[in-house]
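Entry 14. Ran structure prediction on the chain below.
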Amino acid sequence: MINIVGTGLAGMSAAIALAEKGRECNLISYQEAERAQSVMAEGGINASLNTMNENDSIEEHYTDTLKGGSFLADPNAVWGLVNAAPEIVMWLKNLGVPFESKDGKIIERNFGGQKKKRTAYVKSSTGKMLMSALIDEVRKYEVKGLIHRYSHHKVYDLVIEDQKCKGLKVLDRYTGETYQIYGSVLLASGGLAGLFPGMTTGSSDNTGELVFRLFSKGLKLANLEMIQYHPTTIGITGKRMLVSEAARGEGGRFMTYRNNKPYYFMEELYPEEKNLTTRDVATRAVYRIMNDPECSGDVYLDMTHLDKQIWNSKLSDMRDEIKDYLNIDISVEPFKIEPGIHYFMGGICVDEKHHTNIDGLLAAGECCAQYHGANRLGGNSLLGAIYGGKVAADNITDGESGIKKIKEEIKDREIDEVFSLKIRDILRDGMSIIRNKEKLEKAIYDIAVLKKTSLNKGETEKIIIAQAMLECALKRKESRGAHFREDYPETDDEYRKTTVVSYDDGIKIEFADIPERRNS
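Output, structure tokens:
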């Protein structure tokens, strides 16, 4: 049996890929698939369809992805991703995703870090529409007995013996009963947002606790220092709300006040890309302007100049959502934004086929470090999740089958909320948009002090991975993508390597070479 953990786009696409070949799987999730984080994705999915008459190509998508990730991604994995992109988008269209189109051709929009229009979209609700289509497809195979759904189940541990994954342990959140389910495992459990409660745009259900546990058991992680701050978020209760890059793709402009006059700073700082630079560059620019004594201290997104037709056909859902939360009509007045943590390029270390260092355990989607290098291009996350799920499904083998009820106490794994906020505050200071040795060493010291307090099993696992993240950032003595060190402001070819971190009675960090691109 194959067990898939997570019902976002990576998990759903893997389940469908298996079912299409007549292979059974269990699909296990904390909530219903309709509440997966993938639903929140807004702007679109990248594919070089070349429907906009701009002579786009797969090779250009490949080049933009590697360049956007500061050449830290596996070029062979990226080549597979971009080659599969057009077929994936057409597959989604055939499943019923209502991509914006004209005369039968899919319309694509601009996204940051890409000179060609190659982002297919459904207004600014693309993730929701993709998930709806995949949920319907999963239900077809569920009826046929090929996909077995376990919603409202928390996977709290894996069964690992002699570096081989033999199954997982789940808690039925309705009954409180615990079970052991046998088989190989594909993790599609989302990013590490649980390290930064209240600071991320992701789902608060994505705690990352299973990854914390597995790291302490020997699972290797990679590029933990690579955290993407999105330049345009707004604060709402308990989290950050994303303002999609689609806003800038359709003409939105960064603005502040300098000498009491509107100042569109990106157009001066980056005259070629303007407001559509990569997210790492845009975020640092916003951060610096917010701290520039000559400016007002606030940064706005100005969309007041956009045509009514753009609002009605492309951004009406974004306008309505912000109206509901802020009571502002963004079509008639600029609105204040701030950077917020949006995506984790780092995560579980996987190879090109999505295998981990533990036999029988694979990973796909945001929980793993694949495709995005040091900085993810907007529009590549949905693509990477779907493609990664399909690749993992093609490479996972069946394990044992069976399920048995077990009695296991898991209260010692529950993480105190106050403790989590303490870790968050330490990481916030050390892993900020602009870092340096002093900040990182101070954070590592503070973590060490906190580590000496009375901790249960779950809290110990969480603090170990927080320490690993900080030490990865300290070890990388350069600036690359989302990792910017003001004490090492240049990119250094010596560090064009993957940061691989493991734990065995202590944290060990190595730098692994990036594979060479094979002839294709």
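The mean pLDDT is 95. Will compare against last week's run tomorrow.
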